[in-house]
Amino acid sequence: MQAFWTLARRLLDRPGRLAAAVALAFLAAGGMGAGITAVIPLLELILGDGGGSLQGIARERAPWLGDGLIAILPAAPMASVAWLTAGLAALTALGAAATFGQMAISTEHAVETVGRIRRRAYRHALRLPLERLTGRTGDTLSRIVNDTELLLTGFLALIGKSIVQVMRAAVGVAVALAIDWRLTLAALVVTPVLYTVTRKLGKRIRRASRGALRAKADLLSAATESLQGARAVKVFGAERSALARFDRHNDEAVRQTVRQQRIRALGSPLNQAITLITLEGLALAAAALILSGRLDLPEFVATLFALGAAGSTVRPLSRAVQEVQMSSAAAVRLVELMSEPAEPTGPARDRPRRLPRLPRHAESIGFERVSFRYPGAEDDALRGVSLAIPHGSTVAFVGPNGSGKTTLLSLVPRLFDPTAGRVLIDGRDIAGVDLRSLRRQIGVVTQETFLFRGSVRENIAMGRPSAGRPATDEQIRDAARRARAHEFIERLPGGYGAVIGEQGATLSGGQRQRLAIARAVLRDPAILILDEATSMIDADSEAKIAEALADFGVDRTVLIVAHRLSTVVNADQIVVMDGGRIAATGTHAELLESSPLYASLARTQLVPAPA
Questions:
Q1: Is 183:307 a contact under the CB 8 Å cutoff?
Q2: Residue 441 contacts residue 527 (beta carbons within 8 Å)
Q3: Which candidate among 34, 94, 128, 542 keeps its CA 20 to 30 Å from the CA of 58?
Q4: Residue ranges in 420-494 assigned as alpha helix (H)
Q5: What domains are defined for the chain?
Q6: CA-CA distance, 143 to 397, in Å (whole number)?
């Protein structure tokens, strides 16, 4: 429960709303209490007992009201009944209005609070290390979306339902004590039993909810992976195996949810049975008191009304407790997510929070004895790599699959940090500079192009986030022209305003990559990383983009992972990698003579551009 209360403290961020909700709940409960109190004189009037009118009852039982106020009250029995009935109706309307206001304020407050928590969780997820995000995408999404919805259920139960019901119970018990303390104390004997039952059920519900949430997260992961890889599933005819995997996770989610709901269902009948047994005992005690003349019938009925009002809160309060317990399981998962270490901003935790900004790259990029091992791997992906890259040069990285090319370039924007050695830009260790100032200088285009559902304009503009200087339409168009994307964009229905599908599903592979290159061009990076960026572009487009990149690459450092001879031949320097090490460096002509590995790659893997 600690995690739930940690997040519930966010409800106190706007105390005015919470205070208004409590005040309205008190008003609704107070109206109920006044109504119950009015039942006694009403019954006495109807039964012909007492003073025969409100005036008579007031003179007999409340002379402290004073003659002036008592004189205002009706003297006739029927008029007195009408007054009391109208008063009860007014109190009922007031209570209903106050309850509505309380629920409206509580709901809005809870929804907005959860919205802020959801945003905080998503913001933290964006700052998690890359290997954490790529390894558990479905689980992360489930926590941000599903778990926050369950947390909302708990918040609504806490400040919506619980406040009203607790106020009603407190007022009901207070009125009952004022009328007849003996019956009230007898009824309250059952309270510890109700508390024990609710507490034990709550613990079981919390454990069952954790299992259900984990199962649903696994189910979401399975469904997401299959749908994202729908092309491969269809091409390989793997629908049956994908469905079988989904079925396994779906069956587990169903089993865990049924277990959760079965435990939850125990609460209502148990509480109802305890309440009914208590009422039966009260009826026997009341009958004995009435028959012995120690309790009037109107007082008994009013006490029963008051205790009934208090008792009617047991079931909704029990349900609210169950909802809070279910939410606590979601809260644990959310707190776990938001407590995971974000990307390091420096080499040590004791470094000052504000690290120096990295000036615009103008000298060199260096790797000093860099080694790297992926979490959980047995072998290093990089082994003692040392390399100096002058500013403004174009360097191509080639090598067999798994040789470490992409891993090495991933260290430049600090998607990963080396396990040994240093990466330097202009002589500065990038682990000791502000991470944002580093990444603002880097543009990356990969074979796996990321496009989100939105307009072409919005997708290109992502290269220059609005937190910096928002891109103008002319800048976006200029970037598209330089990436040779302007012509096909203009042919789209809506042009730059055309909405493309999720992951750019409505575009060809070459079109998607040209948009990604336009995004990188718009960023105006000092360092441009192309990881097989032209692998899905036809020969004509590749030639045009090579032209554009040659112009764009002036006064920039361009790092390329390529499988095409045309890209490699034009590079200022070629780095041949093998087994996580640098095997050779040089130009195309030099390496053909000096490196058997490169000569073999040139014959077998470095393919010419498509005709």
A1: yes
A2: yes
A3: 94
A4: 435-439, 456-461, 473-482, 486-491
A5: 2-339 (1.20.1560.10), 452-524 (3.40.50.300)
A6: 39
